[in-house]
Amino acid sequence: MKIGLLHYRVGETDGVSLEMEKWKDVLTKMGNEVFLIGGEIGTKNAIKIPSLSYRNEENMILKSWIFEKNEKSEEEILKKLNELKEKIYEELHIIKNFDILIVNNLFSLAHNIPAALAVYEFSKENKIKVIGHHHDFYWERDYYDNINSQKIKNILIKYFPPKEIKHVVINSIARNNLLSKKNIESKIIPNVFDFSTKEWKKDKYNSKIYSELNIDEKHDIVFLQATRIVKRKGIEMAIDVLSKLNDKIHNYNNKETYNKKIINDKSSIYLILPGLNEESEYFEKLIKYANQKKVKLKFCSKICSDKREKNKFSLWDFYAISDFITYPSLLEGFGNQFLEAVFAKKPILIYEYPVYEKDISKINFNIVSLGNNAYIKDSLYTVSEEKYETAAEKILKIIFSENINEISNNNFKLGKKYYSYSRLEKDLRNLIN
């Protein structure tokens, strides 16, 4: 079959783009002809339909009219929406001969309403089967609450998502929400990872990251925050933990870490952030907060790409050169970066976000936890001082542990058992059949 995996964007390091790549790999292995389709495609060999992008200039204007400014009449908004829908409909003719479209988030987030309507109408009129792969829902975000137009509200009720297509969600909370809010049944297919792929290891190429970021490879400790820079990732809580570690690390001078680094008077702790900055106000707050806490941040998205290329490194390279992974996210559809850390065999600090607590924690991964009772203080998330202290002590114990391989290997085995490509292939066969 000819299958298209469609999203606002492909070829980036966000969770949806990464998951689409995995589905493409498995569906291709199953004997299908599979294409990525996006409004933005980065360096990927993919079908580009520019108006699908939520960052498309005309869509950004319409989106602001609907959800932000409320300065346009309902008639003006609907006229603009229909104009864009017709334009996108015409652009979709390039995928007229597809058998199946797997539509990622277009029907669940209202980032680009005309694109969702155009894809719905086009697929229906051209008899293309549609599967909605929903990673997030619009009702989970405050941004979408500010709508004055009743007709736009009705569109969200009817088409986000439409009832008559197949539906896939990535966790049990989403399945229950979709059923209770829309009376729509869905199948859970969790995020997965290719646990059979080549292990990420330090080599001559990715070791250049140390010099690029002015980090001492032999004496400094590197924590990796592999997510995008957005407020719900709770990066400030990683900063709080590192602040505690800064106070304690030199008690370990002349001691050797699990990966043969030697701590001395000049040793520093760094939090490296190769993800995209997608919330500038939050970004500025993080910088200010880290300065207050005397925590060293290294923002390095300019040297991170979806693959190795001239003067750039893949996201996997950053995992390979890191000593510890931080993942203090407040809200995740599932948790790509968690599985990546498990595959990389790196120790992990997490906040127990709802999906982790409900779906993943029962697998009994060995992690350092910040608990599940975060609150906002001075516009940033935090947990109790006791949680930070306990987490810092556990991290130090792990960093200087001789049994790290036992922890990492056991996490890897659990990840492979429950979240591998073989699990995904079985789920996709059932879905498509």
UniProtKB/TrEMBL annotation:
Keywords: Transferase. The keyword Transferase applies. Residues 218-357 form the Glycosyl transferase family domain. Pfam families: Glycos_transf_1. One of its GO terms (biological process) is lipopolysaccharide biosynthetic process. GO terms for molecular function: glycosyltransferase activity. Gene3D superfamilies: Glycogen Phosphorylase B. It comes from the Bacteria. InterPro entries: Glyco_trans_1. This is Glycosyltransferase involved in cell wall biosynthesis.
